Amino acid sequence: MQSKLEALESKIERVVTLVQQLRAENEVLKNQNAAAESERLHLRQTVTAARERLEGLVDKLPEGL
Prior knowledge:
The chain is mostly helical.
């Protein structure tokens, strides 16, 4: 009976360790996702600004070109 309890205790300790590792990994992934989303929004704004500038330049081109 004692050996079964010790085996169960060992399994529980491994599960607890795994849960802690997964929580830490999840936190890292959440931070990476937030950073990627921020970068995506920044790039989208940059592309929009570039498109607007190009459209403004195209509007200034003479009609015959």
